[in-house]
């Protein structure tokens, strides 16, 4: 039997089942098992599945994931996002579109203790959206700023997507974390510039707040004080990894412990029901991600048997075209896939194929992961399956329609494309911190 033909049929069946709504992990397991059983034997498929489950979970990289998920859940339950939003709003007072600017930088700040873009978008949907509507901000403008700002958690460490990337590609997760810092800050800055420019051109999008005219230096200093918990915890975790004081796994443990201590000391986590909810949430997210990752790795083993990744790598590297054209084609494929499947599925399906191509062409693997994460940010807010948009629509209230969220994100998608172009033109933005970390 032609192994390549079985692989092509398997990929086609996988995509078809995804379109029909079959759960991602079950889809990977089903297609991978049937494919391996067809190429080898059912007993071989069973044996390979058991081996994949053990070797995947036994990887030290996997311990990073539950620790940072727990850190994010404890930070959210402790009210870190509310304090970050309030503090940055004081700092941005009198600025056009100040509430939206506070959302952009508040999301960036909260992302340093929460690696989930869905959680960030949901939390700020409950915090920032009511405030913006209370001050008569344009509905689509408000929703677009929250949905896209939430996607910053995909880039700023401790990003859960970077951990998945490390598992799928073998690139050290600590270097990926460092690589996402400057691009994440740059994205938040471009968002803020866009918000201020649009609010100045059209004041109806973001009316001026009279209360802000009374803000003085003392109020701005109080805004910095509101950020002390995030600055302490995020600085400890990220600074410790950068300075070589501890590994990414140790950073996750310190971050989770720090979030727990600050949450208990501050009051919110003294309530047992809040602590239980945070633990339950982190356990649910971790088990779901583990299931998806194991299934994706099992499916990648099926692809390896078919030799599709090897043949595609040879084919594309043999093209007599500039390497940037091949990279552009990969990014275009990801952009189109991101509009119909969730980013985790797109990366799990394509990384075993495209990552060897990119490294063979001479591109830096860390830089490529940052570029891929930028595509993940775009996929998280564009229709029809932008998960951030759906998370925001669910958190903001019944009066919010998903179509309103999608219509509000496009100016920020333009910002994402601008940042993507800058990162493509200047790889040093992504590589400077990883190359200088100890």
Please tell me about this protein's structure.
The chain has one domain. The protein has 21 helices and no strands. It is mainly alpha-helical and 438 residues long. α4 packs antiparallel against α14, α7 packs antiparallel against α8 and α16 runs antiparallel to α17. The radius of gyration is 22 Å and the shape is globular. The mean pLDDT is 86. Belongs to the TRAP transporter large permease family.
Condensed summary:
The protein is an all-alpha fold. It has helices at residues 3-19, 24-39, 42-57, 61-77, 80-91, 98-111, 117-134, 139-150, 160-169, 173-201, 217-226, 228-242, 248-266, 272-306, 308-317, 323-338, 343-360, 365-379, 387-396, 402-425, 428-436.
Keywords:
single chain, 438 residues, mainly alpha, 21 helices, 78% helix, 0% strand, globular, cell inner membrane, transmembrane helix, DctM, cell membrane, TRAP_DctM
Using only CA atoms, what is the Rg? 22 Å
SSE run? HHHHHHHHHHHHHHHHHHHHH
Residue stretches low in confidence (pLDDT < 50, at least 5 long) are none
Structural class: mainly alpha
Q: In the residues, how many domains can be counted? A: 1
Count of alpha and pi helical runs: 21
Average of pLDDT:
86
Fraction of residues in helices? over 70%
Largest sheet: none
Ends apart, CA distance between termini: 51 Å
Strand content: under 5%
**Number of distinct beta strands:** 0
- Shape descriptor: globular
């Amino acid at each position: 039997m032609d192994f390549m033909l079985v692989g092509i049929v398997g990929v086609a069946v996988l995509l078809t089942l995804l379109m029909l709504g079959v759960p991602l992990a079950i889809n990977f397991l089903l297609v991978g098992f049937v494919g391996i059983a067809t190429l080898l034997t059912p007993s071989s498929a069973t044996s390979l599945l058991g081996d994949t489950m053990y070797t995947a979970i036994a990887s030290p990289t996997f311990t990073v994931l539950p620790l940072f998920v727990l850190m994010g859940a404890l930070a959210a339950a402790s009210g870190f996002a509310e304090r970050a939003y309030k503090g940055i709003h004081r700092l941005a007072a009198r600025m056009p579109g100040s509430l939206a600017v506070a959302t952009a930088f508040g999301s960036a700040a909260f992302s340093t203790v929460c690696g989930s873009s869905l959680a960030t978008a949901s939390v700020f949907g409950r915090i920032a959206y009511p405030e913006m509507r209370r001050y008569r901000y344009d509905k689509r403008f408000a929703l677009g700023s929250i949905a896209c700002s939430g996607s910053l958690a995909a880039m700023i460490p401790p990003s859960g997507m970077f951990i998945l990337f490390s598992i799928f590609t073998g690139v050290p997760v600590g270097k990926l974390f460092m690589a996402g810092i400057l691009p994440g800050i740059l994205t938040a800055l471009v968002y803020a510039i866009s918000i201020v420019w649009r609010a100045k051109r059209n004041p109806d999008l973001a009316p001026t707040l009279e209360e802000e005219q009374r803000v003085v230096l003392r109020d701005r200093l109080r805004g910095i004080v509101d950020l002390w918990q995030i600055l302490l915890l995020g600085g400890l975790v990220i600074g410790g990894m950068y300075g070589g004081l501890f590994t990414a796994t140790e950073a996750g443990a310190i971050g989770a412990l720090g979030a727990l201590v600050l949450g208990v000391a501050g009051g919110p986590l003294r309530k047992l029901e809040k602590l239980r909810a945070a633990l339950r949430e982190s356990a649910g997210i971790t088990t779901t991600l583990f299931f998806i990752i194991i299934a994706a790795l099992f499916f990648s083993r099926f692809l390896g048997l078919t030799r599709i990744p090897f043949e595609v790598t040879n084919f594309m590297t043999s093209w007599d075209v500039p390497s940037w054209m091949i990279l552009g084609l990969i990014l275009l494929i990801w952009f189109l896939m991101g509009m119909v499947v969730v980013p985790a599925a797109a990366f799990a399906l394509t990384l075993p194929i495209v990552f060897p191509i990119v490294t063979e062409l001479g591109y830096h693997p860390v830089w490529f992961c940052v570029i891929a994460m930028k595509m993940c940010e775009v996929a998280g807010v564009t229709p029809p399956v932008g998960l951030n948009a759906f998370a925001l629509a669910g958190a903001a209230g019944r009066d919010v329609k998903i179509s309103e969220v999608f219509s509000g994100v496009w100016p920020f998608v333009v910002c994402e494309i601008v940042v993507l172009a800058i990162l493509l033109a200047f790889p040093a933005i992504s590589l400077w911190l990883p190359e200088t970390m100890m």
